[in-house]
Design brief:
With 412 residues, the protein is an alpha/beta fold. The chain has helices at 2-25, 138-149, 187-193, 228-245, 271-280, 291-301, 317-333, 344-350, 357-382, 395-408, and strands spanning 31-36, 40-42, 47-55, 61-67, 79-84, 89-96, 102-106, 109-114, 121-126, 130-135, 169-175, 197-202, 208-214, 222-223, 226-227, 249-255, 259-266, 307-311, 335-341, 386-390.
């Protein structure tokens, strides 16, 4: 009796499977899928990726979707599930955060569709191979630009700096935007327009701002996936764009044991694009940085007094003192800001209680390195060199704050 029932159940299951199979395979193209993203991805930022699924069956389909990601992400969790009504389209959205510049290759989109009875899966493979370049973080650049336009930079930590003895030229009368200084309200224009209007001023124009990016081995230290070099590259793109919006000229120098690239400071319409392309092509190096050559290049190539934003890293006081003569020489002719990084792992050790001899020793070493970093700042300032010691995540904000502070003080 049990054998008969088992045979009947098996027959029913086989029949249902054949029906499910027939439903799935009677359409040559029952499901269609495609991928959509920007032509370029932004390094260190969350980039939007969209998968478009179209169900061409006359019944709802449960689907598993596997997107083949570039090997650089080392991810195997991009499996998505979706229920797509008959004849309808479904959109899957996810984000990717690349941490290296360069070329990325996306593979096929695999869709496993199940019929009404969910007994059979049919695989669809869409060979949508795409090569996408990952550029310095233009998403971050646009975010700061948008906030600057709408006077909302304070939301990301950029301070409002009051101008001291700094003359500004009248530019235009424009509608009031939340955050504008109420002292700039033009009451006559407000009465005429029946809406709040303010006087807009522009800073002194045509000052040169150069980002100097150290590509030596001191910049290869990683933090949250990105190297210090890539943090410096992303910050340079943002500050260059803001300098151009402030009517200054933006330029760029990358260097290590030699001068890799130099882009003269200009205000051309395509200057941001040129800076981005140059930054995209920077390759990391592990040689010792040659500050003597950097100074010689600046002395020979940059004739006008300029703001030099030097992105580098000093781990020891002795390392900074070796380069101090060249930094002092640069500061005699230009306004130099040395920007280097706090070791966030050391900070964790400093604030962790020591419970044994090994931890006491580790904490003492961490205190020594932290003390050296603070001493480097003091020594630079004693020689008239501005210094920023910053965690990598705050690099962009702290650099913008220093730039705006120097402009407000009329130093550039």
């Amino acid at each position: 009796m049990l054998l008969v029932l088992a045979k009947v159940a098996f027959g029913v299951l086989l029949l249902l499977t054949l029906l499910d199979l027939l439903q799935l395979y009677r359409n040559k193209e029952g499901v269609f899928a495609s991928r959509s993203m920007q032509e370029k991805l932004s390094n260190g930022s969350d980039n939007d990726i969209y998968l478009y699924l179209e169900n061409k069956y006359n019944f709802a389909v449960d689907a598993e979707v596997i997107d083949e990601l570039p090997f650089q992400f080392q991810r195997r969790d991009t499996v998505f599930k979706a229920r797509i009504p008959a004849g309808r389209t479904h959109i899957i959205h996810y984000t990717l955060r690349p941490t290296k510049r360069g070329s990325y290759n996306f593979g096929a989109i695999n869709v496993f569709a199940m019929g009404k009875l969910a007994l059979v899966k049919r695989r669809y493979k869409f060979a949508q191979n795409q090569e996408v370049s990952v550029y310095p973080s233009f998403i971050q650049m646009r975010q700061y630009e948008l906030m600057a336009i709408s006077n909302r930079l304070h939301e990301v930590g950029v301070k409002k700096v009051r101008r001291l003895g700094h003359s500004s030229e009248f530019e235009q009368i424009r509608p009031y935007v939340a955050g504008d200084d109420q002292r700039t309200i033009n009451w006559k224009a407000t009465a005429r327009k029946s809406d709040l209007m303010v006087n807009s001023y522009q800073d002194e124009k045509s000052q040169q701002v150069f980002c100097l990016i150290d590509k030596g081995r001191v910049m290869q230290m990683p933090f949250e996936g990105l190297t210090l070099l890539d943090y410096a590259i992303n910050a340079s793109l943002v500050i260059s764009n803001i300098a151009l919006k402030k009517h200054d000229k933006a330029g760029l120098i990358t260097f290590s044991d030699n001068i890799s690239n130099m882009l003269p400071a200009q205000r051309k319409a395509d200057q941001v694009r040129r800076i981005m392309e140059l930054l995209y092509n920077q390759k990391t190096k592990y040689q010792e940085t040659d500050y003597e050559r950097l100074y010689a290049t600046i002395r020979h190539k940059i004739k006008q007094r300029s703001l030099l934003l030097l992105f580098t890293n000093f781990e020891t006081l002795n390392g900074a003192q070796r380069q101090l003569p060249y930094l002092r020489a640069m500061a005699r002719h230009h306004l130099l800001v040395v920007i280097f990084f706090e070791n966030t792992e050391l900070h964790a050790e400093l604030h962790k209680p020591a419970t044994n001899t090994e931890e006491v020793y580790t904490k003492a070493i961490a205190q020594k390195f932290d003390y050296d970093k603070r001493q480097i700042v003091k020594q630079l300032q004693q020689h008239g060199i501005h210094a920023i010691l910053t965690p990598p995540k705050d690099l962009t904000v702290n650099t913008i704050n220093k730039y705006l502070e120097l402009k407000a003080r009329g130093l550039i």
